[in-house]
Amino acid sequence: MSDVIHLLPDSIANQIAAGEVIQRPASVVKELVENAVDAGAQQIQVHIKDAGKTLVQVIDNGKGMSETDARMAFERHATSKISTANDLFALQTMGFRGEALASIAAVAHVELRTRQRGSDLGSKIAIAGSEVESSEPDACPEGSIFSVKNLFFNVPARRKFLKSNETEFRNIINEFERIALVNQHISMSLHHNDTEILNLPESGLRQRIINIYGKALNQKLLTLEAQSSLVTISGFVGRPDSVRKRGALQFFFVNGRFMKHSYFHKAVMQAYDQLIPAGEMPDYFIYFTLDPATIDVNIHPTKTEIKFENEQPVWQILCAAVREAIAKSSSIPTIDFDVDGSIDIPVFNAPSSTFKAPSVQVNSDYNPFKPDTSYQQPSFDWSKLYKGFEEDRAAAFADESIEAIYPENQELSSGLTSDPAPDTLFPEVSSLCYQYKGRYIITSLKSGLLIIDQHRAHVRVLFDQYLTNIRNQQGVSQQLLFPEIVTFTPAEATLVPSLLEDLRYIGFDLSNLGNNSYAINGLPSGVENLDPVALVKDAVSRAIDTGCQVHEEICDALALSLAKAAAIRPGQSLSSEEMDNLIASLFSSSSSSYTPDGKVILSKLTDDELDKRFK
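== DNA mismatch repair protein MutL ==
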């Protein structure tokens, strides 16, 4: 029997490695920019075309490479950063496994132009699919210029499953920002299709954060500092009053390397316990500095997951440091007992003359239990207030139009349509409603009790209304007297242009001011009392969460975001007319049982279940 086991060719082995290291264009940006940082560059330029599918070019002024090094750099496991196994436990650089350039060259057309500092002439090498096409001297500037074209040209299945340009470019921005946040001493810029997206000059850490995410973040950051023999923690955390439900900026860095760590995230959230509402998330930019021998960065191909030798002590230090930062900032109410100086307490000086106690006149003959007293309690028949109430209510429900029933009701008019009353749509629903704890509406059925979550019911009604407006392109906008300015992060700004049309159909009126900023000139009718900036940011964040692949999903996300923001809140008292109006609109919606995100709206308690409780 012949042997069946054989060695894979290097080209195939590199393509397999590329599947782990190079997942998308953002992976190419990450590896090339990190190599530029390791090369000691002080200026790094990144040029992208078609979200990296056509071109990813990284230009740096680092130390460059010799002709031999330029050729060796594309060999698998070729590296200048480690020589022995012990070097793995003292890593101070980013790329060290020697797989990045080999993996990139296996699935793209790569051109490298590089010249060492002090050399008169550089080198140029072109590789496609792991095959060297040319290698020659080149008159190029000092440093390196990597040009990666036609990514996954020889792996069509991988290229087919890349996401939309908006999604891919947003991932590129995320990788670029992560590197920029730990290399504030390096001047960095990012261009997409010849348009400058980010230009970050050399600066301090706080200024680098502001340059990326906007000046509005400056007032929301609290300085974080903690030092011990085990770890040094520095950075910034957000104020408790600046938290948000989604889109929070949350970053961990260890020895200059970005990482994801759910355990340390819990430590931060523990420090905010009882200070922020449930479901809200704070911003944080936290930097750990510790002995490289106590961590392992080689447990994941992308090196975003790091294993700590002393996780629990670091957790405790981190939690205490965040709590201290919050306490020092006066972000929470405190009582200060350490008051400088003495408190002037008035002293009573008894005068020489005496005072007589005030006299009180009491009618000793008054007896409240005797009807013949001079005091007469006012008489009032409270039952007159409810006379004819049930008859009028029943007569009102005989009409088919909610507007005819309650023409003066404006509380929920923005979200409740003029549909038949609940008993004309569902005869078994009673017209009598009761609100329980400002959250649930209880009404009777022929077969039991119906319990309705008022907030979720209103979300369902508003969602259908906003989605209809988008599809019919007939949203109603309420213009603002003084426009508000909303500033997006670079990642968010890449998506906003594709959402403007749908936002306009809902009722938003936005105009581009440049530099990732938009003026909010109008809002959907009925949400005038809400924060316009938070409303728009939340809508864009929800659209980003969908992945921005299907237009219908984006519309649903926008409609749901606005519906949740505009819906009546739990705890809001409703009049009988408002409850009737809400129930009528709910039962005329496309789905009265569940919210658009699958949460239960109705719950039925049958007569049989009630009978069992009293046996």
